[in-house]
């Protein structure tokens, strides 16, 4: 998946909330978005998740997506379990499989005993668990978490950490925002820093450092069989991203 | 898409947003059937009353889902399909109501047809058994259904988010749709019965009205879908 010069604003005369974001989102990566309140993290997350289209640039190669919004106020005329069964179908799961996964996630998040309550009467934390469960139901290739941990009890927070690790290990891409800097600390492959004026700086995270000191090599390779060479470089242990310029410049980052 | 339609239909049924439009429409149809002098008039009335009913059903569906829940659905199934499902469900509900009303009109007119027919309105009533009259009635309902849906999509979130502005413009657009000469709904219901030569011609809404209504629907739904893919927040508390 890839973002190319992505920008978002809500109206032609409105200021850009974020702009000029170019990034690769490789499978199996964990990406942390950080920045102060109002710097555009949630807006960019919605664009990445496909909830809204970018005003500039484009998003390509998005896999099946699960999105957990910042606040999930319920408000729908369903019980928690009914809502999740509907969402399982919307995610394209068959009834039997959907039912099984709904029960599995309700159990894991410690919400099975409360799932027959109406969404309208649920506590903030319980509503948040429903929002998390609906996003995790399809084991999505892209999981987008907008402060999904807030309002959860200790056990559910640990379970969500585990779920994120499982998604990353299973080849999914996970983007998250959380104001607790200790959240999944040292696990992220990349960190996107929002400067508050619409700019986003993409930096490699501690997980990338853990392999070798983060460095970015620009290697010029001239070869007739470029495809073979690229394949060989990609196969080298520790190469995390390889981007190739159209004019045959190969760039790799360990 | 089936899952989305099922989800939106469940929201419509469980939120009880269908009760008020249904009761209103049933009352209006009963009043129309009791007060009109011919089948042509009854069919026009049933069609015309479908415009406000479908417009407000559409408004109900466009305001039923909280922003966050809609975002989850959009991520799972694309915002375009999510928005189409929101618009299709009230359209389908309106289609059921329009069908029921037209059949009711034709069936109850047959009893009255036993009375001697005088003038063209009487002849339309007398011809109630003719399948062409039923089809004509259904086409009137279809034109009004499409116009009502277009009004609902145009005057409500995400295109028009302020609640008071949305409510007032929905009402104004309904009146315009029924009264203005350029409106396909007006063309479908407002033809002069006296000038028509045959019962069928008196009832037939005309292909122009149908094409106009279809165009209106495509344009307004398109605008609503485009806005839905660009705006994240539909609810606003103040101007």
Descriptive report:
The complex is a heterodimer of chains A (254) and B (239). With 254 residues, chain A is α/β, with parallel strands linked by helices. Chain A has three domains: 2-63 and 141-205, Rossmann fold; 74-130, no CATH class; 215-253, no CATH class. Helix content of chain A is 31%, strand content 24%. In chain A, the strands form three sheets. Chain A has a six-stranded mixed β-sheet, with helices on both faces. A three-stranded antiparallel β-sheet of chain A has the order 2-1-4, covered by helices on one side. A three-stranded antiparallel β-sheet of chain A has the order 10-12-11, covered by helices on one side. In chain A, a hairpin with a 5-residue loop joins strand 8 and strand 9 (200-204). In chain A, helix 2 (80-90) crosses helix 3 and helix 2 packs parallel to helix 4 (124-136). The longest helix of chain A is centred in the middle third of the chain and has 16 residues, at 154-169. The two termini of chain A are 19 Å apart. Mean pLDDT of chain A is 88; it is low at 248-254. Chain B has one domain (2-230). In chain B, helix 1 crosses helix 5 (79-112), helix 2 packs parallel to helix 5 (79-112) and helix 7 runs antiparallel to helix 8 (163-179). In chain B, 53% of the residues are buried. In chain B, 77% of the residues lie in helices and 0% in strands. The mean pLDDT of chain B is 89. Chain B starts with a helix and ends in a 9-residue tail after the last helix. Chain B has helices at residues 2-14, 19-35, 39-62, 67-77, 79-112, 119-126, 131-154, 163-179, 184-189, 199-203, 207-230. Chain B is mostly helical and 239 residues long. Chain A binds chain B through residues 10, 43, 46, 49-53, 55, 64-78, 82, 86-87, 89-92, 131, 134-135, 138, 144, and chain B through 2-4, 6-7, 10-11, 14-16, 65-69, 71-79, 229-232.
Secondary-structure map with pairings?
The complex is a heterodimer of chains A (254) and B (239).
Chain A: E1 2-8, E2 18-24, E3 30-34, H1 41-49, E4 56-60, E5 65-68, H2 80-90, H3 95-108, H4 124-136, E6 142-146, H5 154-169, E7 173-177, E8 190-194, E9 200-204, H6 206-211, E10 217-220, H7 226-235, E11 241-244, E12 249-253
Parallel strand pairs in A: 3-7, 3-8, 5-6, 6-7
Antiparallel strand pairs in A: 1-2, 1-4, 8-9, 10-12, 11-12
Helix pairs in contact in A: 2-3, 2-4
Chain B: H1 2-14, H2 19-35, H3 39-62, H4 67-77, H5 79-112, H6 119-126, H7 131-154, H8 163-179, H9 184-189, H10 199-203, H11 207-230
């Amino acid at each position: 998946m890839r973002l190319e010069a992505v920008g978002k604003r809500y109206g032609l005369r409105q200021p850009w909330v974020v702009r000029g974001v170019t990034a690769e989102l490789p499978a199996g990566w964990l990406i942390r978005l950080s920045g102060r309140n109002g710097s555009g993290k949630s807006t960019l997350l919605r664009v990445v998740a496909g909830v809204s289209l970018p005003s500039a640039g484009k998003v390509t190669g998005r896999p099946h997506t699960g999105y957990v919004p910042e606040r999930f106020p319920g408000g729908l005329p369903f019980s928690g379990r009914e809502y999740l069964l509907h969402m399982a179908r919307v995610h394209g799961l068959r009834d039997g499989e959907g039912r099984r996964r709904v029960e599995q996630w309700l159990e894991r998040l410690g919400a099975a005993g409360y799932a027959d309550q109406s969404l309208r009467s649920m506590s903030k934390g319980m509503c948040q668990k429903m929002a998390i469960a609906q996003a995790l139901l399809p084991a999505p290739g892209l999981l987008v978490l907008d402060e999904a941990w807030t309002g959860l009890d200790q056990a559910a927070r640990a379970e969500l950490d585990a779920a994120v690790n499982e998604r990353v290990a299973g080849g999914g891409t996970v983007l998250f925002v959380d104001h607790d800097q200790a959240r999944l600390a040292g696990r992220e492959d990349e960190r996107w820093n929002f400067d508050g004026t619409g700019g986003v700086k993409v930096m490699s995270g501690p997980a990338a450092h853990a392999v070798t000191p983060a460095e970015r090599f620009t290697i010029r390779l001239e070869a007739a069989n470029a495809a073979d060479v690229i394949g060989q470089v990609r196969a080298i242990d520790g190469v995390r991203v390889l981007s190739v310029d159209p004019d045959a410049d190969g760039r790799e980052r360990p | 898409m089936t899952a989305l339609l099922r989800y939106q239909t469940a929201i419509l049924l469980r939120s009880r947003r269908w009760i008020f439009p249904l009761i209103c429409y049933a009352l209006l149809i009963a009043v129309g059937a009791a007060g009109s002098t011919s089948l042509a008039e009854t069919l026009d009335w049933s069609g015309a009353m479908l415009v406000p009913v479908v417009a407000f059903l559409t408004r109900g569906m466009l305001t039923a889902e909280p922003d966050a829940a809609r975002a989850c659905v959009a991520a799972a199934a694309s915002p375009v399909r999510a928005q189409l499902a929101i618009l299709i469900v009230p359209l389908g509900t309106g289609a059921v109501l329009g069908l029921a009303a037209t059949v009711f009109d034709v069936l109850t007119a047959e009893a009255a047809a036993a009375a001697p027919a005088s003038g063209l309105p009487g002849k339309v009533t007398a011809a109630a058994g003719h399948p062409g009259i039923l089809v004509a009635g259904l086409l009137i309902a279809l034109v009004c259904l499409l116009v009502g849906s277009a009004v609902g999509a145009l005057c409500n979130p995400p295109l028009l988010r302020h609640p008071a502005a949305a409510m007032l413009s929905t009402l104004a657009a309904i009146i315009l749709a029924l009264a203005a000469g350029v409106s396909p709904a007006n063309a479908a219901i407002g033809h002069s019965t006296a000038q028509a030569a045959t019962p069928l011609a008196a009832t037939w809404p005309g292909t122009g009205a149908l094409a106009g209504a279809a165009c209106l629907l495509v344009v307004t739904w398109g605008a609503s879908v485009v806005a839905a893919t660009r705006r994240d927040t539909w609810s606003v508390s103040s101007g």
